[in-house]
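U., I forgot to send this yesterday:
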Amino acid sequence: MTNHILSIRHGAVLEARLNRPEKKNALTGAMYDGIAEILEQASASNSIRAVLLTAEGSTFTAGNDLAEFMSVASDSAVSPQSRFIRAIKAPEALAAARRLMRGNKTQLDAHIAMENEAFRRAVRGPEAREAFAAFFEKRKPVLVDR
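Result:
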């Protein structure tokens, strides 16, 4: 596990602490894997009743480490982020949320899948790449009108 994620036991509570304050706790793939490992450990234990996610420094998290995020072109099904989503049991949470929504489950699933795919295309598209590059290079982005 990365030293950017600390695992601290407090009786029946397992704390996962983000420990990268110099980068505002921006999440790397290794950090996602570390959190997933802690969640999987908690899920397998009868003595852990809760997992508490905290952070060092004044910022909980700035989100993904954009430099790493843009440089890694991996299969989203086996990415550290996907492992994290599976570890937090996101499908079960979505199923519970769907029960509270009105509408046909198949239509809701199709709409969620469509939104996810549109987001993936937008983030991986040339405009987003230029915007991220401009951000890191501290310049205005050069966007082409369509």
